[in-house]
Specification:
NAD(P)-bd_dom; alpha/beta; UDP-glucose 4-epimerase; 2 domains; globular; UDP-galactose 4-epimerase, domain 1; Rossmann fold; UDP-glucose 4-epimerase activity
Length: 338
């Protein structure tokens, strides 16, 4: 069964490609390499022994998307990761986010709706909840006004997919995940952002290795246990496995509805200072950091109620916060030793 993975050379995408290949799926990757590298293919092959088909393609080019599906008419499922994903950047450059995250989704769905049947897994986000009123947040929580253009693109994306499934042969699962971290146990693939990291853990590991002078902690006056923001940090391999299980659910027609939604997280919230402490414990070194002003678009707290995914998908996380951070640190050390 041929599966298209958009953004398949990115952090979550590459780990999902590995898990798909482990389960016997034939994978085609589309990536424009804007925040990834073709070198990731070597890591995937080192782990699985299989070279996935790769096409460098910008999904914002509608004609290229149409041409791809003409040449690969036997694609039966799509896992759609390709998107810009930094909250802060989206606030400063909203049109980039609307073009890249909305137009590309529309072009993919336009091709899939021409098929009699198609399966679609959407990389959504806990940002759709905004600042939820209660924690942990479950899938029935109301979707609040987005606090950033990035979050808004995920809300709009979910609405578009919901509307399209009503009038097409597309079946979809929306995976709202929290904060992916870590690296594959082989240390062949991991998170390697281009430029300054927009996420906490790669900034921590780059600071730990000496690439960054110090970490900025955005605010210590939030109403949390230590004043810093709280998030749910999930190991990327646990997350990747959930995508495969979700795809298999659609392929085997186990889905109850045309569109289903699942939270993917650990169910535990960790503050920024707790993540720093976990890094210091696993690395055996102090991390230089400073407290700075709050960052626009950040919610106070976000962690998942995972009962639905646990019970219906039969999926749950396996790695602890410390194990996840240890894997990220080992990956960082390997990458910088080259």
């Amino acid at each position: 069964m041929k599966i298209l993975v958009t953004g398949g050379l990115g952090f979550i995408g590459s780990h999902t490609v590995v898990e798909l290949q482990h389960e016997g799926f034939e994978v085609i990757i589309i990536d424009n390499l804007s925040n990834s590298s073709e070198e990731v293919l070597k890591g995937i092959v080192a782990i699985t022994g299989i070279m996935p088909v790769f096409e460098k393609l910008d999904l914002r080019d509608k004609a290229s998307v149409q041409d791809f599906f003409k040449r690969h008419s036997d694609v039966t499922g799509v896992i759609h990761f390709a998107a810009s994903k930094a909250v802060g950047e989206s606030v400063g450059n909203p049109l980039l986010y609307y073009e890249n995250n909305i137009n590309t989704l529309i072009y993919l769905l336009q091709e899939l709706q021409q098929k009699q049947e198609a399966n679609f897994i959407f990389s959504s986000s806990c940002t759709v909840y905004g600042q939820a009123e209660t924690m942990p947040v479950n899938e029935n929580a109301s979707v609040k006004p987005a606090m950033s253009p990035y979050g808004n693109t995920k809300q709009i994306g979910e609405e578009i997919i919901t509307d399209v499934t009503k009038v097409s042969g597309i079946n979809a699962i929306l995976l709202r995940y929290f904060n992916p971290i870590g690296a594959h146990s082989s240390r062949e693939i991991g998170e390697l952002p281009i430029g300054t990291p927009q996420n906490l853990v790669p900034f921590i590991t780059q600071t730990g290795i000496g690439l960054r002078k110090e970490l900025s902690v955005y605010g210590d006056d939030y109403p949390t246990s230590d004043g810093t923001c709280v998030r749910d940090y999930i190991h990327v391999v646990d997350l990747a496995k959930a995508h495969v299980i979700a795809l298999q659910r659609l392929v085997n027609k186990k889905n109850v509805d045309k569109i289903e939604i699942f939270n993917l997280g650990t169910g535990t919230g960790s503050s920024v200072l707790e993540v720093i402490a976990a890094f210091e414990k696993v690395s055996g070194q102090k991390l230089p950091y400073k407290i700075v002003d709050r960052r626009e678009g950040d919610v106070i707290s976000a962690y998942a109620n995972t009962e639905k995914a646990n019970n219906i998908l039969g999926w749950k996380t396996e790695s602890t916060l410390e194990e996840s951070i240890a894997s990220a640190w080992e990956w960082e050390q390997k990458v910088r030793s080259k």
